[in-house]
Amino acid sequence: MARAHWGCCPWLVLLCACAWGHPKPADLGGQDVRNCSTNPPYLPVTVVNTTVSLTALRQQMQTQNLSAYIIPDTDAHMNEYIGQHDERRAWITGFTGSAGTAVVTMKKAAVWTDSRYWTQAERQMDCNWELHKEVGTTPIVTWLLTEIPAGGCVGFDPFLLSIDTWESYNLALQGSNRQLVSITTNLVDLVWGSERPPVPNQPIYALQEAFTGSTWQEKVSGVRSQMQKHQKAPTAVLLSALEETAWLFNLRASDIPYNPFFYSYTLLTDSSIRLFANKSRFSSETLSYLNSSCTGPMCVQIEDYSQVRDSIQAYALGDVRIWIGTSYTMYGIYEVIPKEKLVTDTYSPVMMTKAVKNSKEQALLKASHVRDAVAVIRYLVWLEKNVPKGTVDEFSGAELVDKFRGEEQFSSGPSFETISASGLNAALAHYSPTKELNRKLSSDEMYLLDSGGQYWDGTTDITRTVHWGTPSAFQKEAYTRVLIGNIDLSRLIFPAATSGRMVEAFARRALWDAGLNYGHGTGHGIGNFLCVHEWPVGFQSNNIAMAKGMFTSIEPGYYKDGEFGIRLEDVALVVEAKTKYPGSYLTFEVVSFVPYDRNLIDVSLLSPEHLQYLNRYYQTIREKVGPELQRRQLLEEFKWLQQHTEPLAARAPDTASWASVLVVSTLAILGWSV
Amino acid sequence: MARAHWGCCPWLVLLCACAWGHPKPADLGGQDVRNCSTNPPYLPVTVVNTTVSLTALRQQMQTQNLSAYIIPDTDAHMNEYIGQHDERRAWITGFTGSAGTAVVTMKKAAVWTDSRYWTQAERQMDCNWELHKEVGTTPIVTWLLTEIPAGGCVGFDPFLLSIDTWESYNLALQGSNRQLVSITTNLVDLVWGSERPPVPNQPIYALQEAFTGSTWQEKVSGVRSQMQKHQKAPTAVLLSALEETAWLFNLRASDIPYNPFFYSYTLLTDSSIRLFANKSRFSSETLSYLNSSCTGPMCVQIEDYSQVRDSIQAYALGDVRIWIGTSYTMYGIYEVIPKEKLVTDTYSPVMMTKAVKNSKEQALLKASHVRDAVAVIRYLVWLEKNVPKGTVDEFSGAELVDKFRGEEQFSSGPSFETISASGLNAALAHYSPTKELNRKLSSDEMYLLDSGGQYWDGTTDITRTVHWGTPSAFQKEAYTRVLIGNIDLSRLIFPAATSGRMVEAFARRALWDAGLNYGHGTGHGIGNFLCVHEWPVGFQSNNIAMAKGMFTSIEPGYYKDGEFGIRLEDVALVVEAKTKYPGSYLTFEVVSFVPYDRNLIDVSLLSPEHLQYLNRYYQTIREKVGPELQRRQLLEEFKWLQQHTEPLAARAPDTASWASVLVVSTLAILGWSV
């Protein structure tokens, strides 16, 4: 799980917020927040003065004859993490939370954000800003209708509204005598001026062939073949998501935190390949790798990133049909393509193809998980020795596990901000420690680590929860029920093309049985050195059906407010299942290789099938990770691994079912008195 | 499960067809079908000559200046079963299958139907008609575009197209220079003339208070209170589904096969109650029960059924907002209400309220299930004696169980056409025997009975599958896995407001595990002397979330083409679950009280939890049905019940898990050699 979002792209933020339930705001009651009702208002030192920038923004609005201007929290590609130069909402409001929309009128300014961020917003915003606690377009439009006069215009940057969001605003404003006005020059950027951080400009590089599943030429041919087979015969595919272009060309960079992407679009037509990016970022080797000096159908023409809208508009003048993935294409592109020339699907063929890994990609992803397990095991061994000394805190722990990952071969940094949470902090939905604010790790508390790495061969994501002292019976029960959920879903056999939504309850049943549950989703896709939350694979209602070759995380949890949090997350490959009777069935093969915490497992709650599964999994861990630890002379870690993967045995006295019944019967037959 | 449809209303037919997968056509290869390619064409005797009626229809079309006319298979209320006078498609084409749309142009006539009906259509239609094997509006519109000239008009009866279906035609025709024309006078009816069967005219009667959960006045007040609380403040609710009006006023009749309804609409406003029906069908007692002679807000004004469209149109001229359930309101009503005066939800507040039974309604439904169990048990006991004699066939069996139900108190006929299927016939998706075509019951084959009754206090639906001889190991395994599915879902504990879709896989897991599955849905709501397939409760994606007080069937199955079919269906009440830790959790309480077939259960596949559940269920059956059998002096049936509800015991030798492990350990401890 990631800190702020539940998918690779912010179009999923709401889903995430919903799935977690409405998380209670962290108890920051004692914190220093603004008070705008006193005269003069009370403003804590954390507040940003926005008077000057708001005045300048209103001047721009006046020039454009706008009554209001919408400032979303997105970028032009619906990225999960956005670059500093795209943090327009944060800059104009002072409020830096990852979710929230601002709207400015000539007289007022307001922010809408969810409960996770209310306190933070009250600490960061000055009294120019109203805080609204409902989210979605409806409350924003309701407010707009009372704040701006009939006939008023509501401006927005069309590259910051998805098609769906635009439609939602448009529908809500219909018949209200206020109209939406698309303005391609961002007004906040005009005000921000030279203070605005520069757009990243690091080199864009090609992955070595050893780390790619297919050449870019093979991928281009594959997509073109899908275009030909499509009944609406699209003449081009437009790729708006950065991961699409990165995947298609096997190119990477580091424009986005945690995601190895670069700002780009691709227009792949039946006769040309047009890559929109900053040409100066390509080395001559990379340009030659892309055949960028020729003009045939297998040559990549590089055009400037800023030209994409005009180029699409010009292309759309011809007898063409442009295929787009509507979930993540922005209105700024959509509005320049005539409707009859659009071929729409929720996800582009690139997104759909990328979701199913070929055998080489599977092998690469698995290999990265073996090395990732080494880093996590090194950290767990280190914690076991150092936590009792009282010298480890959440933040230094997170730094250490990041460092261990960084020492692994092919490492390219963490795949998201490490969640290192001790005790009650692990029950917070989106917690990450900071250098200033963190908690000490202790043998008296549970500790949750949710972290992952980017490696040239794959992206990883794993969560383990541990206790070094004596956990309570309830903690053990909750942990074991979470573990059962993980096992029940991991070993489930289900028909091919079943949607994840239909089976995710298997990860919850053992918790439900006791009146427990968790408020977030059960898993998400993952990429080969791409997104750690890679759509459209997963267990939510808008995920696509499961197919052989997909990878997904499986991550049930349990959270006790103010006390502790448990999550057990593994990445699993969807594989064919061998069933007694022939049929097309699937199951999961777990590729995360770190044992669970024996100290937290109540074996009496496990069925023989659970134990059998667990012991087989432990045997696999030994086989995969053991030799790697030995090869690297990590002998202490090897010993630890052997200890923690010892087969678990049934505990007869605790079982209340078959076991006791039959022992009793057996003894009875033998004439024993019981 | 019902024969033709999967819900109370045909808007669900497609769902049903999808859920079952595309059922193979019954093997009727040897049957006598038409051959239009010979000269003269070969026509079997079963064919209907439609030349005269088609000519007359085309004259009507010419009068209206139509290039094409659509003849759907629905009625004006989206009823699951339709009256004979509504069987327009069957009359004009000769093809009597329950699903299929006809379209007539000036030159051609065509029918679109699914694979279940292809052979039947070829036996019943003459060569005036083309048969098209794809279903949905898209293939129809594709055909229309080639068959009718640009500028052509496509006529339809707006009372026979749902809002969704109209939108789908409208969207597909957009930009094609062909337009849809709504014609309120049905052109087929004009041609049908005096031959058309009369509209039912039996008395409409009020249910005795003993059989109603609330008075109609209480229900009216409840709906008005929901109108007041609604944020869009509707001034009226329009009820289009016949079950809505029947439920609201506690009125019943017998216009529709298997459903105790009468043709009607209700417009319930904040100050009036307008019931559209045939006034002559109300006795003076019923009129006085409805306060129909006064004009206050709690008086029911009865207006003629045929006036509904004009009355709604007139009402919509005022400052009003009309709340409708869009899933089952027809375009003929929808088109006369200005969009800004519509308040739309998928289901009306009546549909939503009706879905949750109050405690009296729960008690009534349960009581009907006890008597229903008596009828089914009488039949099973009779079969056990008579099947070995070789004198029972599927049709006479169905007649007998219908007769036994008819002898129960408060009986009002079957709730759907009894599915009585022996051997391979039970594997057919929509099989019911006829007097002419049926199969003998035998001790060598499995027999599936899916049937239900209408009683004044409740509607029932139960499926049992039996074998009187020696079932094969595979039959026992499949039966037991279906039973495990039924148990696993029935005993599931899940959070309040979980959607059925999220949990229905628990009914499939035991089958999936072995590579088996079933192609239909897992359950549907059921009414109090209303629909046997009552929406919107159930396990499909368009069902609403589960809530305490709802009733649903639970009915996994397994079907082996050409060999046998298994389905085990019970009706269950959604009740609060007691969990170890406090929370809002639900589970099911099964209210069908007929034991499963011991002869088909492989106990070795059952876990201790399954056995415990089953034995507790059997104990409940004894407690509920036993006294009723004794009271009625049905002593043979009582004895049968006792035998068939004997507690089942674990069979140690077959268990491969805890059991054997522990017995072995125990014996080992005792020094036995094993």
Shape of chain A: globular
Work out the number of β strands of chain A.
28
Largest sheet of chain A: 6 strands, mixed
Largest binding interface between chains:
A-B, 42 and 43 residues
Strand content of chain A: 15-25%
Say what oligomer this is.
homodimer
Unreliable sequence segments of chain A: 2-29, 653-674
- How many helices of chain A in DSSP terms? 21
Q: How many domains make up the coordinates of chain A?
A: 3
| Average predicted confidence as pLDDT of chain A | 92
Radius of gyration of chain A: 27 Å
| Structural class computed from helices and strand pairing of chain A | alpha+beta
Q: State the end-to-end CA separation of chain A.
A: 50 Å
CATH level-1 class of the largest domain in chain A: Alpha Beta
Which strands sit side by side, in order, in the main sheet of chain A? 4-3-2-1-5-6
The residue fraction in helices of chain A comes out at 25-40%
Notes on the structure:
The structure is a homodimer of 674-residue chains. Chain A has 674 residues and is an alpha+beta fold. Chain A has 3 domains: 146 residues, Creatine Amidinohydrolase, Chain A, domain 1 (3-Layer(aba) Sandwich), CATH 3.40.350.10; 150 residues, Creatinase/prolidase N-terminal domain (Creatine Amidinohydrolase, Chain A, domain 1, 3-Layer(aba) Sandwich), CATH 3.40.350; 287 residues, Creatine Amidinohydrolase (Alpha-Beta Complex). Helices cover 33% and strands 17% of the residues of chain A. Chain A is built from 21 helices and 28 strands. In chain A, the strands form 8 sheets. In chain A, strands 4-3-2-1-5-6 form a 6-stranded mixed beta sheet, with helices on both faces. The first copy, chain A, has a 6-stranded mixed beta sheet with strand order 12-11-10-8-13-14. In chain A, a hairpin with a 3-residue loop joins β25 and β26. The longest helix of chain A has 28 residues. Chain A is globular, with a radius of gyration of 27 Å. At the A-B interface, β21, α17 and α21 of A face β21, α17 and α21 of B.
